[in-house]
Inverse folding.
């Protein structure tokens, strides 16, 4: 076992049992999260296999009777609770148990049955009640202080049909999640049901003829893949890393090295903010924090060979838990495989002919289903030292019906009297790079065209300006198209064979501005999305850019609070928080199911090597 390995099922059980016993928790207690308390960088570096290790869990939970929220630390050998602290801000993450229990409870509530009957819906079995978390400012005044959810209603046209094909427009419920009790029925308006087609399963799509001209495509690696996976330690050609996983970030990539040199200590996604940009009654509460409110780990789905992943695959399972603290396994949660990636480099010489190398990449991926939506995450490692992080958004868009002649301007018409609201998916990647060690400085690197003059008579001169970011205030950076701004993480204490400092460049992709009034409640909760990049000095406790307790939050207690200290970020252990995603202006082609929308950013070596590190890739 390695100190960074995720908690096992036995460890989760032990942590829950220990806390239950020592704090005399009743069955009204819910475990929101149980995760490994990751060891310090020093511990990780000093570890050699066989060393005794101390494992610790961090547990967050609450009592449904008094609503009290606690965060605890539990050591596992010997089992003991070492800290137990009451939390006073916000609510713990939403849980899958609550989602399911809320759906089941509301479907039996006479007021719900009555409201649905008035819309002609009597088969409750075909109803899906979809619970969302709130921002505190939107919780009705009279219910503040409780653990409150609000719910949408969806309806399946036949037992096996898609619920997200049919919104029940203008009907929402407000729920006390601790008592699992309906507080309010909001019946704002009704719309005569349009004749739509929201099905995507072939049998349910009328007149669909599946293509017949696709021949098999097989990927064979007769000698197996070129990587080795030993427990959670992965090595492939010159790359090495460890695979981690937790309830909130999902896949975490630890201790990334190339040829024995350190590139990154830890890479993950720390938050996702999805504001729907539609102020109408059906949508104004729709501001999902899919990581802080729900957790990518909890929402991870099993992958299937031949469908999700093609070729010689190695899978890793993930162990999550329910709100009783009981562990369960997500089979095949993480996919690891190699891919052919066309050409790495090539040149054709008139005399000697073509010299060409095919590119191979190592891919780590996991898939998340957030109710109607899917996020597919791919971390790719290349033979020339590049790292690419790609996210694909797919699944089913939220839609809503409107009365004849009255389409609201906040979305795109995708079916008869049906529009899909515009929305944005902001992802915050947490990039703890350690380029040849921890003492790094981030430079904004920008191109500048010099004015014409005696030294520049043709107006061609272009120079590159590198500006060190010295404080957290400097570290608040925005994408600039005019200068092609990017950011280099440089170790000024280590030089390459050319005598220049080694570095890795964050090449921005899919960056876009929030386009939101700073006074708007969502921006107050998610100030983190207000910049493309934030840089902070490493602090193991600083993990969540919009705060630890995002459910029913009022303010962002993460990045804006930490960076208000304006700490030094020069020549120190830095963490980069990169904000990117999908500015989703919906299209008819994304209905009834959306093909992947793909966004990515890159980490590329700049002077980390003396020359192309892919020179040694052999011809195929
Ligand atoms: Cu979208």
């Amino acid at each position: 076992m390695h100190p960074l390995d995720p908690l096992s099922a036995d460890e989760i059980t032990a942590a829950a049992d220990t806390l239950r016993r020592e704090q005399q928790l009743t069955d009204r207690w819910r475990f929101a999260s149980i995760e490994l308390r990751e060891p310090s960088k020093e511990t990780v570096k000093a570890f050699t296999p066989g060393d005794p290790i101390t494992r610790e869990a961090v547990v967050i939970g609450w009592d449904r009777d008094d609503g009290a929220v606690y965060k605890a630390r539990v050591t596992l050998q010997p089992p003991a609770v070492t800290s137990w602290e009451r939390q006073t801000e916000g609510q713990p993450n939403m849980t899958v148990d609550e989602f399911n229990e809320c759906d089941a409870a509301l479907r039996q509530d006479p007021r719900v049955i009555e409201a649905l009957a008035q819309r002609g819906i009597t088969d409750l079995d075909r109803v899906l009640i979809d619970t969302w978390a709130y921002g505190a400012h939107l919780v009705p005044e009279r219910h503040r202080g409780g653990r409150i959810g609000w719910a949408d209603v969806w309806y399946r046209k036949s037992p096996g049909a898609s619920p997200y094909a049919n919104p029940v427009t203008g009907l929402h419920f407000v729920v006390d999640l601790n008592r699992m009790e309906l507080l309010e029925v909001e019946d704002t308006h009704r719309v005569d049901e349009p004749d739509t087609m929201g099905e995507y399963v072939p049998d349910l799509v009328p007149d669909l003829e599946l293509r017949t001209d696709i021949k098999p495509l097989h990927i064979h690696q007769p000698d197996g893949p070129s990587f080795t996976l030993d427990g959670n330690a992965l090595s492939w050609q010159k790359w090495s890393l460890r695979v981690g996983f937790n309830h909130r970030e999902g896949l975490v990539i630890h201790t990334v090295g190339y040829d024995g040199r350190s590139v990154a200590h830890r890479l993950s996604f720390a938050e996702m903010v999805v504001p729907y940009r539609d102020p109408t009654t059906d949508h104004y509460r729709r501001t999902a924090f899919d990581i802080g409110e729900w957790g990518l780990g909890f929402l991870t789905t099993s992958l299937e060979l031949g469908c999700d992943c093609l070729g010689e695959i190695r899978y890793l399972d993930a162990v999550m838990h329910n709100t009783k603290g009981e562990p369960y396994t997500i089979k095949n949660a993480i996919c690891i495989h190699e891919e052919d990636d066309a050409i790495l480099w090539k040149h054709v010489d008139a005399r000697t002919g073509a010299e060409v190398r095919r590119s191979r990449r190592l891919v780590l991926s996991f898939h998340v289903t957030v109710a109607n939506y899917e996020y597919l995450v791919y971390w790719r490692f290349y033979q020339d030292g590049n790292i690419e992080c790609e996210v694909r958004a797919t699944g089913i868009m939220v839609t809503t019906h409107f009365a004849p002649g009255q389409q609201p301007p906040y979305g795109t018409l995708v079916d008869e009297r049906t529009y899909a609201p515009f929305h944005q998916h902001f992802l915050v990647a947490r990039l703890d790079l350690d380029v040849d060690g921890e003492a790094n400085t981030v430079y904004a690197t920008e191109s500048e065209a010099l004015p014409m003059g005696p030294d520049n008579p043709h107006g061609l001169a272009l120079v590159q300006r590198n500006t060190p970011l010295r404080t957290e205030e400097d570290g608040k950076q925005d994408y600039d198209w005019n200068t092609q701004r990017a950011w280099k993480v440089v170790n000024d204490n280590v030089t390459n064979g050319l005598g220049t400092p080694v570095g890795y460049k964050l090449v921005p992709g899919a960056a876009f501005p929030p386009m939101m009034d700073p006074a708007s409640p969502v921006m107050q909760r998610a100030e983190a999305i207000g910049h493309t990049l934030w840089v902070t000095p490493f602090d193991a406790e600083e993990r969540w850019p919009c705060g630890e307790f995002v459910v029913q939050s009022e303010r962002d207690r993460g990045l804006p609070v930490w960076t208000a200290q304006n700490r030094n970020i020069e020549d120190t252990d830095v963490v980069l928080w990169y904000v990117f995603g999908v500015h989703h202006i919906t299209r008819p082609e994304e209905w009834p199911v959306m093909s992947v929308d793909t966004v990515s950013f890159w980490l590329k070596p700049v002077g980390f090597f003396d020359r192309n590190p892919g020179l040694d890739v052999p011809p195929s």
Q: What stands out?
A: The pocket of copper (II) ion is lined by residues 393, 423, 425, 582, 584 (CB under 6 Å). The chain has a mean pLDDT of 97. The chain has three domains: 9-87, 96-204, 236-605. The chain is about 10% helix and 40% strand.
